[in-house]
Specification:
This protein is α+β, with helices and mostly antiparallel strands and 387 residues long. It is built from 7 helices and 15 strands.
C-alpha cells in the first residue's frame, strides 16, 4: 500500500476465499436455471459503474470449450471461508486467478498479491470486524455477497469507527473455475466508480469525534449504513422506566437513576450504562417515557423491585431500528426535526417505519461540550430484509 487512498480500503469481503476444501478440477456441470431470476440484480449493479461493466464476465465472449463450473459449491465455499477473512488462518490465494481485478470506490488492484498485501495492512492497523450476511448466484458466472465491515481508525486518538455496508460482485472465470474479478458497491454513496470523490468524503465524514462513554450499551449489529442513517438489529435488553414530559426532557431522570443507585427493594447498586433513552410511543408524542438500560447479564426475574410506584422494570424485545446520529444539545425542536428527516428518508427508501421514536443520549450534558455530544434518533421498523 503505497498510495494514500489505499489506507482506507473498507471493503474486502468477497475477495478472500480459499480452495483448501474445494477442488476445481472435479466440479460437476450445473445448469442452474434459477440463477437467471437474479440476473437483473447483476445487470442493475453493473450499470451503476462503468468499470464494473468492463470487468463483467457476462459481457465477454463465450469460452471456447464448454465450462463445467459448479456455482452452488462456490457459494457454499464462500459461506465457510469468508469467516476467516481477518483471523490467523487467513485466506488461500488459489481461489483466484493471478491476474484478478479488484475495484472499490477508492482502491484498485490488478493482482492477487496486491490484494493480499492490502488485507494484511488492514488487519494490523484497523482491526476490522467483518460480517457476511448472504451469498447468492446472480449470473451464470457471477456471485454476489452482502456484508458489513467495521474498522477502528487506530491512528487517531479517539479511534473512530468506520462503518461500510454493501455488496461485492465477483466474476468467475469459466475456464479455470476461479474468481477473476471483484467489484465493490457501498450503500452509503451513489458514485461507486473508481476513483470516487464521494467515497473518499464518506470516509472522512466518519472520522469526526463523538464522545461515547466507556460504558455498557445494548447489543446490536449494523445491517446497513446509508448516507443518512444506519439500520441496526438490536438484541433484547432490560430497562428501568419512568414518565417524562417531552423527548428532550429529564424530569423523571432522578427517579430511574435512583433505582440503580440503591433505591430498590434490596438496596442493590447497579452499574450505570449508556445511553439514556426517551421514547415517544405515538406520532403526536403525547406519551413519553424515560429509560435507563440495565446490565446485559441481569435477568428481569432476579432484579429488585422499584421502591417508587412511578417507575417500573421492562424488557425491550429488540428488533430492527433505523438510526440517525447527530451532535449538539438535543433540544425538543432539534429532536423533532431529526425525527422528520429520518422518517422521510425511510419512506423514500420504501421502508416501513413504526409510529413514535426514541432519543438516545450518551453524554452528561453538564460535563460534555455540545459539539462532541453523541445523540441518536431511532425509529423501529415494521420489517426489514437485506436484498
Amino acid at each position: 500500500m503505497n498510495s494514500t487512498h489505499q489506507i482506507f480500503r473498507p471493503l474486502i469481503p468477497a475477495a478472500c476465499v480459499s480452495f483448501r476444501r474445494l477442488n476445481t478440477t472435479k466440479l460437476l456441470p450445473c445448469p442452474r436455471p434459477k440463477a437467471l431470476k437474479h440476473r437483473h440484480l447483476s445487470l442493475q449493479t453493473a450499470q451503476n459503474s462503468k468499470w464494473a461493466v468492463r470487468l463483467s464476465l457476462l459481457d465477454q465472449s463465450p469460452p471456447k470449450s464448454k465450462p463445467t463450473v459448479d456455482v452452488d459449491r462456490l457459494v457454499d465455499f464462500l459461506y465457510e471461508d469468508l469467516v476467516h477473512l481477518f483471523d490467523d488462518q487467513g485466506i488461500d490465494r488459489t481461489a483466484y486467478d493471478e491476474r484478478v481485478k479488484f475495484r472499490d470506490p477508492i482502491t484498485k488492484h490488478d493482482t492477487i498479491t496486491g490484494y493480499l498485501l492490502n488485507i494484511s495492512f488492514l488487519k494490523i492497523v484497523f482491526k476490522p470486524r467483518f460480517q457476511l450476511h448472504w451469498v447468492k448466484q446472480t449470473g451464470p458466472y457471477e456471485i454476489t455477497t452482502r456484508w458489513t465491515m467495521v474498522m477502528k481508525f487506530i491512528p487517531l486518538p479517539w479511534k473512530p469507527e468506520l462503518v461500510f455496508t454493501g455488496t461485492s460482485v465477483m466474476g468467475i472465470n469459466p475456464e479455470t473455475g476461479k474468481f477473476c474479478s471483484h467489484v465493490d458497491f457501498w450503500d452509503s454513496i451513489k458514485t461507486n466508480d473508481y476513483f470516487s470523490v464521494e467515497g473518499l468524503l464518506d470516509v472522512f465524514k466518519q472520522l469526526r469525534f463523538y464522545k461515547t462513554p466507556d460504558l455498557e450499551t445494548p447489543k446490536y449489529e449494523i445491517l446497513k449504513r446509508t448516507a443518512n442513517y444506519e439500520v441496526r438489529k438490536y438484541s433484547p435488553f432490560i430497562v428501568v422506566e419512568g414518565s417524562v414530559d417531552k423527548l428532550s426532557g429529564s424530569a423523571g431522570f432522578n427517579d430511574v437513576t435512583g433505582y440503580i443507585f440503591g433505591k430498590n427493594s434490596k438496596m442493590e447498586k447497579i452499574p450505570m450504562t449508556t445511553p439514556v433513552f426517551t421514547e415517544a410511543s405515538d406520532a403526536e408524542f403525547s406519551e413519553v417515557s424515560i429509560k435507563i438500560c440495565l446490565p446485559l447479564e441481569k435477568d428481569i426475574s432476579s432484579l429488585p423491585d422499584p421502591n417508587q410506584e412511578t417507575i417500573r422494570l421492562k424488557k425491550v424485545e429488540g428488533g430492527t431500528a433505523a438510526v440517525l446520529k447527530f451532535s449538539g444539545k438535543p433540544t425538543e425542536e432539534i429532536v423533532r426535526e431529526k425525527e422528520k428527516v429520518l422518517r422521510s428518508s425511510l419512506i423514500r427508501d420504501v421502508l416501513k417505519p413504526k409510529n413514535g421514536c426514541l432519543l438516545a443520549r450518551y453524554n452528561d450534558p453538564g460535563r460534555t461540550k455540545s459539539f462532541v455530544m453523541r445523540n441518536e434518533v431511532l425509529i423501529w421498523l415494521e420489517e426489514f430484509t437485506l436484498d
